[in-house]
Write a structure and sequence with these properties.
352 residues, alpha+beta, five-stranded mixed beta sheet, 6 helices, globular
Length: 352
């Protein structure tokens, strides 16, 4: 995500006893950026998404907050707003310098996964994520909003990926994978994103042993059996970004193509139980892109989302705390990384 110049990402991770949640902030440059959103899941938890409708007047976004805690977690955006307000950032509303920070947000369900149902992100966590925001490599895995994430029968988390187009445009995605669906082929254990990487990106990930795939399938079925069949208990949320200059309507369409990428990496996706939501931020101040360049950008956005899901799953770590017992992809399929079937994972490297 931070390959897009001007963007910063910060996490607030809550792993204390009884906690397994957090918040992630994507912070835009001073003055904000154009933003759009596309909500596809049947049970979303969101804030300020109507404002991003191309028919509405506000066209600059100061930050996007992604958080755990289900609807309670939307409070994290309050802390982000207050921190940005204190810095003088926001939409101008009077001649005396009064501003209102524009901070859309989306949340995922992780309630009770740390052991205490009432431990959720609050305003202070959103503020901490803003203060932690930096332009260096994005920390991936079980951090920020992905701390308590679950993906089908496996541990989910935060993932990020980017691409540079032939014309020099950069496109990136950051996703938090907490899906009802699976991110691997339940017949073979193959990571669904694996076939969609850039050259060499997922070469270190092979096909798991058949016995591991069968064991993982049985664990996933057991996990579904224990999971209440209620809406709003899963989702993938994320942010796509580019250094191209786009309108609000174009950002909305980029988010839509991002969901195509999500459908390649999660099966099933956009269910009535998920709240799948993708934002798009356009940081660029260059001339508007032509149709061919816009098409290439949108295709790349979908690819980045697919790859980001893959990196989220590869960076996730197993958790067993009495409330949940979730294996990471690496621990469920060590043979995919060169280890003997059922053995310890082989050499592993993060990329993206």
């Amino acid at each position: 995500m931070t390959d897009v110049a001007g963007l910063r990402v910060g996490h607030c991770t809550r792993r204390e006893p009884g906690w397994l949640t957090g918040a992630t902030v994507v912070l835009t440059p001073p003055g904000g950026t154009v933003g759009g959103v596309d909500v596809r899941g049947g049970a979303p938890g969101t804030r300020e998404t109507d404002l991003l409708d191309p028919r509405n007047v506000v066209d600059r976004v100061d930050a996007v907050v992604l958080a755990g805690g289900s609807a309670f977690g939307l409070a994290a955006a309050d802390g982000a707003m207050q921190t940005l307000y204190a810095a003088g950032r926001g939409w101008p509303v009077d001649e005396d310098g009064g501003v209102v920070p524009i901070v859309p947000a989306a949340v995922l369900f992780d309630l009770g996964r740390g052991g205490d149902f009432g431990h959720v992100p609050v305003a202070a966590d959103g503020a901490a994520a803003v203060r932690a925001a930096h332009s260096g490599p994005v920390e991936q895995g079980c951090v920020g909003a992905g701390t308590g994430a679950r993906a089908g029968g496996l541990k989910g988390g935060v993932g990020s990926a980017s691409a540079v187009l032939d014309d020099g445009t950069t496109v990136a995605a950051l996703v938090v994978v907490n899906a009802f669906g699976e991110t691997c082929d339940q017949r073979t254990g193959e990571l669904l994103a694996r076939r969609h990487g850039l050259a060499g990106e997922f070469d270190h990930v092979g096909l798991p042993d058949a016995h591991e795939a069968e064991a993982a399938r049985e664990r996933a079925l057991a996990a579904y059996a224990e999971q209440p069949f209620r809406p709003g208990m899963a989702t993938v949320i994320g942010v796509i970004a580019t250094d191209a200059a786009l309108s609000k309507a174009q950002c909305q369409k980029v988010s839509g193509l991002g969901h195509d990428g999500l459908a390649r990496a999660v099966d099933p996706v956009h269910t009535l139980l998920d709240g799948d939501t993708l934002f798009t931020l356009a940081v660029g101040d260059r001339a508007p892109v032509d149709l061919a360049a816009l098409h290439a950008l949108m295709v790349a956005a979908g690819g980045c989302v697919t790859r980001a899901v893959g990196h989220a799953m590869l960076a996730a770590e197993s958790v067993s705390n009495g409330a949940v017992d979730l294996r990471s992809y690496r621990d469920a399929f060590p043979s995919a990384f060169g280890a003997p079937p059922g053995g310890a994972p082989g050499p592993f490297a993060l990329s993206g």
